[in-house]
Design brief:
This protein has 13 helices and nine strands. 61% of the residues lie in helices and 11% in strands. The N terminus is likely disordered.
């Protein structure tokens, strides 16, 4: 049975304050940057005020979401200064550690396959040597050479057969270990959160985070959105002219741009077949449209060069609201449908799901 939604906490009477922090400079660099912190303190208070205004509990998670969201409206200088401070912190969470572990695991799996390929090549070469020896033996048998030569060849053949038998057993043993390891890796892979092809989260992890966000929306009543992004199908239609490898590089470029434009609170994932999805937390449809327009402009200004020819990159985006009356799968389907709608619209490179109008 679904859990009964808890009542949203009433924090209207909670007074949010930030204590003054005395900072002591330890060196010249710290003294040069100390004027940043008063502005950061004021900004932190602004974030807390925004949380209070929206009746949200000032948990670390909510503070981080609003911290990133409000930062978008600040000056580029302030954003750069704040980012430089944040980079000094250790931001490696459990997901980051998991990603690194999975990368190592995939590299280990590749090494095992490489070992098997080398062993297989060695076995193949031994088989070739056996064939050569048999051929030479037939030639000697048909000649008038000394019988001792035949004896030597027979002895060599015997030794090679023994060596081949040993390697065959080793290959069988190695294959058994490989199959066992592959099974373990496959089992782990089913629980992974990382898409190795594009360096993003995978579809399974995205849905887990989307369902988690839906539960939060059910409790706190805020608005979030998702967008589906795909490389222009007009480019894909010219696959023969552009080249399969070039299209693959273009798609990877889109993945990198998505990461570049995303906030730390956003979840960017590869949905499949070159389609990407992004969960925009605490973002209504209007803000999601603006984010999509910025992404479209960024992509269009990141032209791709193949030899001496310039190819204009373009994407299509579908936008849908995250609502609790639909399943996570249905919400993603709405974004995918909106993306298909955008392909038939010559005015814009994005479209909003009709579901958004029902939520207005």
């Amino acid at each position: 049975m679904p859990k009964t939604p808890r009542k949203r906490r009433n924090i209207g009477d909670i007074k949010l304050e930030v204590e003054d922090i005395a900072l002591t400079s330890q060196n010249a660099d710290a003294q040069a940057d100390e004027n940043i912190f008063p502005g950061l303190q004021e900004y932190s208070q602004e974030v807390l005020d925004a949380l209070s205004k929206d009746a949200l509990v000032p948990t670390p998670s909510n503070f981080l979401l609003y911290f990133d969201r409000l930062l978008e409206n600040k000056s580029s200088r302030f954003k750069k200064e704040v980012t430089s401070i944040l980079e000094l912190e250790d931001n490696s969470g459990n997901d980051t550690n998991t990603l690194e572990l999975e990368k190592s695991l995939k590299l280990g799996f590749k090494s095992i396959k490489d070992i098997l390929f080398v062993a297989a090549d060695l076995y193949k070469n031994i088989s070739i040597m056996n064939k050569i020896l048999k051929k030479k033996k037939l030639e000697i048998d048909n000649s008038d050479d000394n019988q001792s030569v035949v004896a030597i060849v027979n002895t060599l053949e015997h030794d090679m057969n023994k060596l081949s038998s040993i390697f065959t057993k080793q290959i069988d043993s190695l294959k058994t270990m490989y199959d066992k390891t592959a099974g373990i890796v496959k089992k782990v892979e089913n629980e992974t959160i990382f898409d190795n092809q594009f360096g993003l989260y995978n579809k399974r992890y995205f849905f887990s985070k989307l369902e988690q966000e839906m539960s939060l929306i059910g409790e706190f009543k805020h608005k979030s959105s998702i967008i589906a992004v795909e490389l222009s199908r007009l480019l894909a239609k010219n696959k023969d002219k552009i080249g399969k490898n070039t299209l693959s590089l273009m798609t990877k470029t889109i993945a990198r741009l998505l990461l570049k434009t995303s906030r730390r609170s956003d979840i960017v994932a590869h949905y499949g077949n070159g389609v990407f999805v992004m969960l925009l937390k605490y973002t209504d449809i209007s803000s999601a449209v603006k984010a999509s327009q910025r992404l479209i402009d960024l992509v269009q200004n990141s032209n791709f060069f193949v030899a001496d020819k310039e190819i204009n990159l373009s994407v299509i985006i579908g936008i849908a609201p995250v609502i609790t009356t639909k399943t996570s799968e249905e919400i993603v389907v709405e974004a995918l449908k909106a993306m298909d709608t955008a392909y038939g619209d010559t005015r814009e490179d994005y479209a909003v799901s009709p579901l958004a109008a029902k939520e207005q």
